[in-house]
Design brief:
The chain crosses the membrane at residues 43-65, 72-91, 97-119, 131-151, 157-174, 195-215, 227-251, 258-276, 282-306, 313-332, 344-363. By secondary structure, the chain is an all-alpha fold. It has helices at 5-18, 21-34, 40-64, 70-87, 94-118, 124-149, 152-166, 192-213, 215-221, 226-229, 232-250, 256-276, 282-307, 317-333, 342-362, 365-368. It has 2 domains: 5-173, Growth Hormone, Chain: A, CATH 1.20.1250; 192-368, Up-down Bundle (Growth Hormone, Chain: A).
């Protein structure tokens, strides 16, 4: 697919703004809880509900929205989502849940637009790395602005709402549709192998985010000093950016199958180091975990495409990632008893092993034959 640089930039901007909230949820939802607008018990449920809505919308948009009206869809989604962000700090209870689910649906549509471009390129793995690196930088930048200049839920959600509405400004530079390079026959549902590959993506993200949500409690349980625990999040975020950048440079030069196997083995070693190794290794292990988090994701794209050469499954990657990101912590929370969070790591190891196996099996040349 051939697009002008201005069109590619506009599409990526829209997609990046759609995926800002996962990086801001601890900050924004934490502010709501501190202000008494959201109970601590409801915080996790609200975060899960929005991520699930994002995943469902990113996956379902291709089935219900016209692919030839991207400008109008992007403008409506950005303005409506921004309006919901602006309204969020002024409500509470069930109204807040309804607003954040609505925001998730709009955000998922914006992500769908970016994914639609990425999977239609000749180098989707490289473009996926670029998208991941840019979205992480954008999350870091907005989180920094909110932390420095827009404290509290009102300032934070106002900043997010203004940025989201501003996405409509780039809509005139977007293409109004994409060239049809994806097989779209009578049935748009991916074949069985494509669904298995998507299950692998879902489980891989379930592993990642389940461990990420509980990494600080796990560090404290392992005896890591509190001053070092506070370094985990910013250090991991920096390493995520480096991981996405490295994947962008190496995509197409490293074999996807061997890379995912190697990354999976290293991740398993990191899990063991976090749970059973000396506390002095924990920070280094968590930093390496952050690097591999985004480094591995672009290498999954070629395997999903190999599982479904029509690229119908590839269009659903964003939805699978978001659903996995929401279900992982939700399922892992049931394993935490009496403050012991170590079982979360073993849950993550199981998701990692099955997820990688599903991707490798579905995307193998033998399976294709």
């Amino acid at each position: 697919m051939s697009l002008r640089a201005s069109q590619v930039t506009a599409v990526l901007v829209v997609g990046i703004i759609g995926v800002l909230i996962p990086g801001l949820q601890p900050q924004l939802l934490g502010a709501l809880a501190l202000e008494g607008k959201l109970s601590a018990a409801a915080l996790g449920g609200l975060a899960t509900a929005e991520l699930l809505a994002m995943g469902i919308a990113a996956g379902a948009a291709g089935f219900v929205l016209p692919a030839g009206r991207l400008r109008a869809i992007a403008a409506i989604a950005a303005i409506a989502t921004g309006a919901v962000d602006l309204a969020t700090p002024h409500v509470s209870g069930s109204a807040m849940f309804a607003l954040r689910v609505a925001a998730g649906l709009g955000e998922g549509v914006l992500i769908w637009i970016a994914i639609g471009f990425i999977v239609r390129t000749t180098r989707p793995d490289r473009w996926s790395g670029i998208y991941l690196a840019l979205q992480t930088l954008a999350q870091f930048a907005l989180a920094s602005v909110i932390g420095l200049y827009a404290a509290g839920s009102l300032g934070g959600f106002t900043a997010l709402g203004v940025v989201t509405v501003a996405a409509a400004a780039v809509v005139p530079w977007m293409p109004d549709g994409y060239a049809t390079t994806v097989s779209e026959g009578a049935s748009q549902m991916p074949p069985r192998r494509g669904l298995i590959a998507l299950l692998g993506v879902l489980l891989y993200l379930a592993f990642i985010v389940a461990l990420w949500v509980y990494v600080e409690p796990l560090a404290l349980q392992r005896g890591v000093p509190i001053a070092q625990v506070h370094l985990i999040a910013p250090l991991s975020l920096a390493m995520q950016v480096l991981g996405a950048g490295a994947a962008t440079l190496l995509a197409g030069r490293l074999p996807p199958r061997a890379t995912l196997v190697a990354v999976g083995m290293v991740n398993l070693a990191l899990l063991v180091a976090m749970v059973a190794g000396p506390p002095s290794l924990f920070i280094a292990a968590s930093a390496a975990f952050g690097f591999l988090w985004l480094f591995a994701l672009p290498f999954q794209v070629p395997l999903v495409i190999a599982a479904d050469p029509g690229r119908r499954a590839a269009l659903l990657i964003g939805g699978a990632q978001l659903v996995g990101s929401s279900l992982g912590p939700l399922l892992a929370s049931g394993l935490v008893e009496d403050g012991n969070v170590a079982p979360v790591a073993w849950f993550g190891a199981a998701c990692l092993g099955v997820g990688v196996a599903a991707l490798l099996g579905a995307g193998s040349t033998r399976a294709a034959r």
